[in-house]
């Protein structure tokens, strides 16, 4: 049976990498002419556009993050999940019909807009370790815990305001953590592991043993504590887009999955 976290109401997007060249971070997610003009099989899928619609609503419009800063380099490396709600067309501001009325736009050909009754309401991303950014010297920059242990990072958890008491955030966090718990080696699925171990400054760090990090806004630490994350006081506080953040950690039990020593790929065995 193929592994998938997709359903009618949860979309799962694997790392898009070079396909992200079609995304213009200076434009809203519903206005991506470069992506619209390319072959859909080569471009950015609707699921990621929907994730960015949610992030624009929450982080840009509500919290004041500059639009061009919301999309970053980690988006091309990350796994994303998007939750949808089934709503009447008139309740979905991103449906072609409503946008045509409010913006006087031409609906024809706007494949990037969600269907009239399927509204994106929540998203999360997981950036797999070891954050491999190649350097000219042939080495890899790796994200390593203070104990020289690699980790994955959850982030960009966002839920549309009207749905914040419906358990959507918990669903997203549980879904992402469960995927990591069952498929720890998937964090390496797109890399040459042997080459990375040889090239990395800290070869021992290229090994996921269940450590997960979040950069939590100071004001929502209690939310992440409900999911089992603990604040690392040694990391202090820092500023991200004018908002104070702290580091929080959680340890997953991945030993059973590690014993299987298998790497999952889309369409592969469960």
TrEMBL record:
SUPFAM superfamilies: Acyl-CoA N-acyltransferases (Nat). GO terms for molecular function: acyltransferase activity, transferring groups other than amino-acyl groups. Residues 23-44, 92-112 are annotated as: Disordered. PROSITE patterns: GNAT. Pfam families: Acetyltransf_1 (PF00583). CDD domains: NAT_SF. Residues 65-253 form the N-acetyltransferase domain. It comes from the Eukaryota. Residues 23-39, 96-106 have a biased composition (Basic and acidic residues). This is N-acetyltransferase domain-containing protein. It comes from Extremus antarcticus. The lineage of its organism: Eukaryota, Fungi, Dikarya, Ascomycota, Pezizomycotina.
